[in-house]
Amino acid sequence: MRYPIAALALLVLTACEAQPEGEPVARARIDGQEPAAAAPTPEPSATATLASQVESACRSIIFEDTPLTHCLAVPSRHRIAMDLGPRGEAPYRSLTDFARAQDPDTIAFAMNAGMYDDEGEPIGYFVEDSERLQALNTADGEGNFHMKPNGVFYGSDGKWVVRSTDSFLANVTERPEFGTQSGPMLVVDGKIHPTITHDGPSRLIRNAVGVDDNGRAHFVISNAPISFGKLARFYKDELDVKNALFLDGNVSLLWNPATDRLDTGAPIGPIAVIKKKASE
Fold first, then answer.
1. Fewest Cβ atoms nearer than 10 Å: which of 6, 47, 171, 174?
2. Which of 154, 133, 151, 166 has its CA nearest to residue 247?
3. Pfam families recorded for this chain (predicted)?
4. Exposed e or buried b per residue across 185-211, where buried means at least 16 C-beta atoms within 10 angstroms of its C-beta
């Protein structure tokens, strides 16, 4: 999200364009209700058939009538890194430009991850390859980032954590291998953020991350406009995640090489990169 100047422009938008979906929405529903009747599924193309043979870390589901894509990073199979742009150069600003610079066979998925200024630079804590590019931001202000408690997603050596900013400041003394700060927290110590309502009027394409008790990182992007409350409930009630962090809204994008999904949209900033570990 461009911040703070572009935030004013975003207020006039009701939702971003629906992102291209590389996977069909699953017929099964995670909320236990009976699914609505669906149109017959067309025969897959040769490209889709080939993509389906590649294991995907992402699945499409429906939660409370809203389609989501849920991508799971597992420490035994994946590494997580942050990327802003080529070293010494300007930020990528799009997943398309980022993807051009990568070997897709090494990437499980990638997603924009944190708020940024008009140049694409992070406005909060940001660590890439153990190098801190932006200090922790504890300032007060307007907008989602300052909807406290906000938080930090970080990790080292396959141990990934989401903490509120205050908890991070009080408990983390060593620089992690990666880190990104955003806000608001969706779920804090098993409870939904105190100012998030059940299903508020703000509905946008949104993405987030949370880490469960088994150390797995759950990345979620909505495929239709969603409220903060519904996204928070998905983490708390369905994924049983005790700490989840909102990453961004209205510019949320996903690259999933396994299904040839490569979202395009407004310029982005920090990118979370989930890489495949080499086979033993």
1. 174
2. 151
3. NAGPA
4. bbbbeeebbeebeeeeebbbbbbbbbb
Q: Dihedral sign for Cα 262, 160, 278, 102, please.
A: positive
Closest listed residue to residue 21, CA positions, set 248, 225, 221: 221
| Alpha-carbon distances, residue 95 vs 105, 165, 184 (angstroms) | 16, 27, 23
What amino acid is encoded at 30 in this protein?
Answer: I
According to DSSP, the residues that pair with 81 across neighbouring strands are: 273
Smallest Cα–Cα separation from 188: which of 130, 246, 126, 122? 246
Q: How many CB atoms lie within 10 A of CB 141?
A: 12
0.90 cut: is pTM over it? no
CA dist 148 and 157 (Å) reads: 29
Q: State the amino acid at position 69 in one-letter form.
A: T
124: DSSP letter: S
DSSP-assigned letter for residue 234 = I
Look at residue 7 and tell me whether its pLDDT is greater than 90. Answer: no
Q: How far is CA 268 from the centre of its chain?
A: 12
What is the rounded distance in angstroms from the CA atom of residue 85 to the CA atom of residue 120?
10
DSSP 233: H
Residue that has been written with the tokens 């236990």 in this structure: 32
Average pLDDT, the chain: 85
d(CA 119, CA 65): 36
Q: And the tokens for 199?
A: 């299903």
Angle at 182 between CA 177 and CA 188, to 5 degrees: 95
Q: Say whether the peptide bond before residue 149 is cis (omega within 30 degrees of 0).
A: yes
Which pLDDT score is estimated for 278? 84
With bands split at pLDDT 50, 70 and 90, how would you rate the model's confidence at 168?
very high
